[in-house]
Every structure is written in C-alpha cells, then in structure tokens.
C-alpha cells in the first residue's frame, strides 16, 4: 500500500478537490503526508511475519534473567490501558492517528474527537485492495467530472465567442449601413443645392436680359427722335438688315456639340452660362473661339453682345456661327 499511495498523491488537482485546503486542520499539507509515506515506504508492514533476533527465542531466557523476569511479572500490576485510536464523536468512526483525524475533519467538517483504547484492526490484503480500488474509482470519477466540466466550459466559451462574433458583424453592418445612408443624404443635399444654384443663375440671366432689352428700346427711341430732329430733309440711307436671332453651334472640348438660338443682344456671358448649365461632365474653365476668321475671345469680350462682336471683329456671329470651346 505504501508503494501505491505516492502515485495516487501525484494527482494533486484531484486530491485538492477531495480535501479542500481551506478546511485542513493544523495546516497539514498533502506534501508533508507524501514525504512521510515516501520516507517510511521501506519499513516492515504490520502484517509482515515477525523474524526474531538470532540467539533469542520468545518466552525463553537463561539463568537468573528468566527467573527474575517471571518474578517481576508476577509482582508488578498490569499497566493501565493506553489510547489506541481516536474516535470521531460526530459520526463514531475510529481513526488510527492524528493525521487520519485531520484528514477526516477536512473531508467531513467534523470537529469533535476523543481518545479511545479500542485498537483498530489492521486491514487485510483484500480490504487494502478494496480500499485502494475505491480510492482509484473516486479519483477517476473526480477526473471524469473535471474533464466533463472543462468540456462544457469549452463549449460555453465557443458559444460566447460565436455570439460575440455575430454581434460584432451586426454592429459592423449597421455602421456600414449608416455610413452609406449618410453619404446618400449628403449627395442628395449637394444635388439639391446645385439645382437651386442653377435656378438662381437662370433667374439672374432672365432679369439681365429684360433690363438690357428695355435699355436698348429706350436708346433706339431716343436715337430715332434725335436723328429725325437734326436731319429732317436728309434722305435716310437704306437701313441695314437687322436680325432678331443668332443661331450658334458650340463644339465642346469633350467631343460633343450643342446648338442654341440666342438673340443678337445676348452677350458671351449668356453663351457661357448656357454651356455651363447644359453640358455633361464636370464644369471646367474654358474660352470660346472662332476658326474663320480665327479669333479667341478674351475675358474683356464677355460683356459684349453678339451683334457688337460681329460688327467690331467681323467674326460673323449673326445670324449664325460656329464657336469652339477651348482651354484657357
């Protein structure tokens, strides 16, 4: 039995579950028990046959020693009974030593012990084997419980990990959805602002045209009255044909073209605004030019009417012409 217990004591995790350390009496550790068993594992067992020393035989003596021994035994009284074991007053179990009592107290929580003169019968080989088998079965059972608990904890941790991963995925998807919605709202707002800006530009162009038309009519009326008053008898020269429309074809830098009919009183600013509002793609800075005759209109020409440009530069914008969009 001494040779088997040290092997069992190696499984400290199981023994700690069998004997909780917080309940150990007098702070006796498993290590001290193991060391004690290892130190006395070669001692003769109580059940081993006794070999008497050579030269002596139990019950025999020589000379005076034998006679003196018998007379002494007859004259002396039998010694008082000595404590042979410890008894647990809580459950009535007899224990061999203080170490056994401490282990019993740690295992059961019992705390009341008393000395007893009743000797504990030594275990037979069959009882030792049965007790060892019970202890091994208990260790196996505890180990199986621990392994089952570890397996369940592993499964639970895997469930928690999967749940956490699923929650993280849902949070990430929700954040992406919110970001996409935010971008869509921003684009929609920018598109609305651009639409309002174009509408405002159109209104300003229409207002400018109306004011310019009114000024031209007033100037023509005043000029006609002045000419009639200063030359009443002069024969008026044949009036030059006046056009009331100007059809322009605009060739864009991207390769496309657009055609629109303007009034001779419209300026190049009006033409530029029409291009910006109706061309596809991003708006970029550009200039306008003609090929025949070749003329690139500068920023100073932007406020001049199509009629003035046709008269001053002979570029032939009225009644029709081709303008080319070019980079500055």
TrEMBL record:
A GO term, aspect molecular function: K48-linked polyubiquitin modification-dependent protein binding
Residue intervals of the UBX domain: 241-309
Location relative to the cell: Cytoplasm
Entry keyword set: Cytoplasm
Listed Basic and acidic residues bias regions: 123-166, 201-221
Compositional bias ranges of the Low complexity kind: 59-72
Domain of life: Eukaryota
Region (Disordered), start-end ranges: 43-89, 103-166, 201-241
Protein name as annotated: UBX domain-containing protein 1
Organism name: Geodia barretti (Barrett's horny sponge)
